[in-house]
């Protein structure tokens, strides 16, 4: 289960969101060229709402799958002798929580609450920064090849975070949106390939698990 909630689930999430964005943003750009106010289109609003709900649901599934799996910490952060309990699962949960907050903001933005329009991109940027921060320290004390692969992944994470942060001030910029989409597709493929490699090489997975 730990491999699933740590690699396969985020891989499916990033790939699904990336594919969705790769279709949504070109269509939005074409509609805007026809002078149509896409933000007031009810079908586009429904799509934004479903996207936000999907982020929240996947975040909850990731957190609960890690916490309540047979080998999970079951919401225990440390033992009676004050030693940490399965910090790897807690770091995964922190990443899911950050993306879940971003999905919640996506749901609240269309509502008449007076939230600033760039808040959704800002929350996405902070979720990517949290992921990058955890990813950087996640590679410590691992074999050199794993450290190298994780450092390459940081390029995609930081690239997506930078695009999202720029979109706070440069709204509806097609190049930034497509670049962010590319970073998500790259992340999704990386997570799934990592999971496939673990499945095909149980010895490597056991060694990495011992060093995590």
UniProtKB/TrEMBL annotation:
Q: Which InterPro entries match?
A: DUF716, TMEM45
Its main localization is: membrane
One Pfam family of this chain: DUF716
Q: Which UniProt keywords apply?
A: Membrane, Transmembrane, Transmembrane helix
Q: Which residues cross the membrane?
A: 6-25, 46-68, 96-115, 122-139, 151-170
What highest taxon heads this organism's lineage?
Eukaryota
Q: How does it sit in the membrane?
A: Multi-pass membrane protein
Q: Where in the cell is it found?
A: Membrane
Q: What family is reported?
A: Belongs to the TMEM45 family.
- In its UniProt entry, what is this protein called? Transmembrane protein 45B
Q: Which organism is it from?
A: Mauremys mutica
